[in-house]
Amino acid sequence: MHWDDLRIFLGVARDESLSAAGRRLRIDPATVSRRIARLEEQIGAALFAKSPQGYALTDAGQRLMDHALRAEQAVLAAGEEIAGQAGRLSGQIRIGAPDGAANFLLPQVCARIAADNPELEVQIVALPRLFNLSRREADMAVTVSPPSAGRLLVQKIADYHLHLAGARSYLDRHPPITTLDALHGHRMVGYIPDMIFDKELDYLGELGLTRVSLASNSVLVQLNWLRQGAGLGIVHDFALPSAPELQRLLVDRVHISRAFYLVRHADDARLERMNRFAAQLTEGLRQEVARLEGELDKMSQASDA
């Protein structure tokens, strides 16, 4: 069994498609198909079941996946050791993240890391869902809840805060909002209820507000609705410096705290490159949350003066 065959097997397992795996590996799909067929012949079992949804692992394929992942980690670790660990970061690293972190924190943090490491290629996948690290949808993921299952490394990054907010253009058209009960008479902006992928994101539910007039699975869409004066909603404090037309409301009554976690596959602990990037990313995110929330506090103090 050759490593190159296992590499192609991993590509199909992760992308569930011959063509997608071919693009990732820069091999034509016909060659991918032949190599998978050769591997299945060597093993004596079908590794994939084809369906309209793509290529799904069979039981034999799932068993081989565990071995192939360990082989991949060994190859990557050997490459790092031979290349040396003292140099700059290089190669491709893909980060999965909810779009709040992906839009308002990760770009500037990753830009600073990339500026110090010219040979490093960073990809940010901003999706409102959980990532499957075993299938290498991402090398690491930023989450709002620590996972409780799987062979994973989980590290808390930082606490962050959210508040109720609305545009001044909206607030000028309505009576002052002084109680939580008054919110029931306002148009609320928030997540699509049946697309909330993590219970930690059900902010409006915590306030007893079940009707969401303007809903999206994207934090950025919600923020833009609020900026247009379309209603009221919960906003990350670290996003508010980029939206000065928004004003926090009921600050003493609506104060939501959450945390970000960095999640990695357990086998990546052997990779010094991944360890160094994770350390820089974690520290950079901590500093960026603190900087933006501190900037917001200064803006609020200036407006109150």
From TrEMBL:
GO terms for biological process: DNA-templated transcription. InterPro entries: LysR-type_TF_proteobact-type (IPR058163), LysR_HTH_N (IPR000847), LysR_subst-bd (IPR005119), WH-like_DNA-bd_sf (IPR036388), WH_DNA-bd_sf (IPR036390). Transmembrane segments: none annotated. The keyword DNA-binding applies. Keywords: DNA-binding, Transcription, Transcription regulation. GO terms for molecular function: DNA-binding transcription factor activity; sequence-specific DNA binding. Residues 1-58 form the HTH lysR-type domain. Belongs to the LysR transcriptional regulatory family. PANTHER family: HTH-TYPE TRANSCRIPTIONAL REGULATOR (PTHR30537), TRANSCRIPTIONAL REGULATORY PROTEIN (PTHR30537:SF3). This is LysR family transcriptional regulator. It comes from Pseudooceanicola atlanticus.
